Amino acid sequence: MPIIAAILAPACGVAVLRAAWSRAVRSVPLTSAGWVLIVAGAVLGALREGAWGVAVAALGGMGAAAAALGWATATSPRGNRRAPRERSILARDTDAPLRIGGRLLTFALVALGAAAAATGLALVVRALAVRLGSSLADANALTLFVLPLAWTTLAYLVLMTHDRRRQVRVLALAVLPVLPLVAASVVP
């Protein structure tokens, strides 16, 4: 029975999120309840069946999200307007600068800096797992789980921060937990 609850909780969470987000003014309590249901489904799945249970619970949430998207697509009114023509950034009519340097720096911070910081965080998690008695296979699997989550989170934080100094601070704060591990591996 709990695996059924693990499948239904994320599906209900998606429905609650859909209801909360379709209001004229978004409801924070409903949004929070939706996310709590999604997390509860993952926890129930993990408690019942481990990683397989989490995967099955995720399928329930993804299935509900796909159904909601399909329903919205099928029932949305057809637009009467034509989409505006997108123009290339290089074929602009304005004389505003392209800011290529700033764009390259943003790319470097997100693609290289956030990736490096996320890799460091994942290695810290691996080292902690090994020190706490986890097998190497489990520690490596945990590393592969943490890396994309950390990278996504750091990339989001860097991209949503408009000030360059704050972007660098976000990445520096992410690197701080890595420093003791590096110091421990360098100093015998």
Report the span from N to C terminus: 52 Å
Shape: flat
* Biggest beta sheet attributes: none
Derived structural class: mainly alpha
List the helices and strands in order.
Answer: HHHHHHH
Radius of gyration: 22 Å
Mean pLDDT: 86
Low-confidence stretches: none
Structural domain tally = 2
The helix count comes to 7
Features:
single chain; 188 residues; mainly alpha; 2 domains; 7 helices
Task: Explain how this protein is built.
- This protein has 188 residues and is an all-alpha fold.
- It has two domains: 2-72, no CATH class; 100-186.
- The chain has seven helices and no strands.
Please outline what is shown here.
The protein has 7 helices and no strands. By secondary structure, it is mostly helical. Helix 1 packs antiparallel against helix 2 (28-49) and helix 4 runs antiparallel to helix 5 (136-159).
Fold topology:
Blueprint: H1 2-21, H2 28-49, H3 51-75, H4 100-131, H5 136-159, H6 164-175, H7 178-186
